[in-house]
Amino acid sequence: MSLKAFHIFFIVVSTWLCAGFGVWAIRDFTQSGSWLYLALGAGSFLGSVLLVSYGIWFLRKLKGVSFL
């Protein structure tokens, strides 16, 4: 597995974890009403968006490099 392929895999997994944590935090906010969970959820979703945009930038930058 090349460094490029591992990097893309790591970005995808990190995005899923960030989004999953955001869903968990927002659901916990609806049950407990603690504003901390709302802030954590919003920050998580922002992190997910930033990770997706970074992944797109990374793929465009290394378009000519093979995955192997």
Can you offer a commentary on this structure?
The chain is mostly helical and 68 residues long. The chain has a domain of 34 residues. The chain has two helices and no strands. α1 runs antiparallel to α2. The model has no long low-confidence stretch (mean pLDDT 94).
Q: What level of helicity do the residues show?
A: over 70%
Secondary structure tally: strands: 0
Helical stretch tally = 2
Order of helices and strands: HH
Unreliably modeled segments: none
Largest sheet: none
Terminal CA distance? 6 Å
Q: Averaging pLDDT over every residue, what do you get?
A: 94
3D shape: elongated
List keywords for this structure.
68 residues; mainly alpha; 2 helices; elongated; single chain; 84% helix
Write the layout of secondary structure elements.
Blueprint lengths: L2 H30 L2 H27 L7
Helix pairs in contact: 1-2
Concise overview:
This protein is mainly alpha-helical. It is built from two helices and no strands.
